[in-house]
Amino acid sequence: MQKLIFLLCRILAALPLKSLHAMAGFWGGLAFYLLYKDRARIRENLQIAGLPADDAAVKKVLRETAKGALELPVAFFRRPEDIETLFREVHGWQHIQAALDAGEGLLLITPHLGSYDLAGRYISQQLPFPLTAMYKPSKIKAFDAVMQAGRVRGKGRTAPTSIQGVKQVIKALRAGEATIVLPDHVPAPEEGGDGVWADFFGRPAYTMTLAGKLAQVKGVRALFFCGERLPAGQGFVLHVEPLQGSLNGDKKHDAEIINRNVEYWIRRFPDQYLFAYNRYKHPAGAEERPSEQAV
What we know:
Largest sheet: 7 strands, mixed
Number of strands: 9
Strand order of the largest sheet: 1-9-8-2-5-3-4
Number of helices: 12
Strand content: 15-25%
Order of helices and strands: HHHHHEHEHEHEHEEEHEEHH
Distance between the termini: 49 Å
């Protein structure tokens, strides 16, 4: 099974981006009719975010989500120098360069938006040191082996989503290296994940505290980035901007600041966000959400 997955991923990685996106357009359109739960969740999440939620909008999100899935083999198995050529423009690299010049650690934050794996691979290739990504192993061992192999290529490193992994990331940041965190991943308290209820598009969402904590490690510069996907398989645009707002060490306050930043990026590229993700779920072991406490 594992060998078959590796072979399939390598075949997909070799296909032109336009072909992959054309395939994704077909499968995403088909998913609208087959995946009722995903369709319903996307529609609900679009409504919560105050975005258009008609059938056309939902289909667009599903197609972009499918593109993201088919881009993973490219990120994991295509040569880094070939991945570089997929990025047509880069905006905001001066923020990364400023951190490099100052010898600061780089906390690179990106939501589940656009082609975050390809964007991370592009950034990693430009850095003079390793880039560590927090990583939760897949429950399917065959898939996990593929993802792990793809993420540790070149300068890529992974750290588990555990206390030990957090220590590994902090050590890397203090050494002036870089790490990537996806702040809209719902933490699992029963697995050691720390979170608080913080508003996300006006509704309480269990939000990780890790991004805020890492951003306040001494000598660390926190930046948000996004790999915008261009239409018709034309490639990508990398956007890098400083974290907006001031963190103060209060978990709830800092989580809300992080969420405001995520909202900002989603509003810029709404079709490319992973709206099928159950962002408002109540993970086992988490305290009651505020609305439940008030009842």
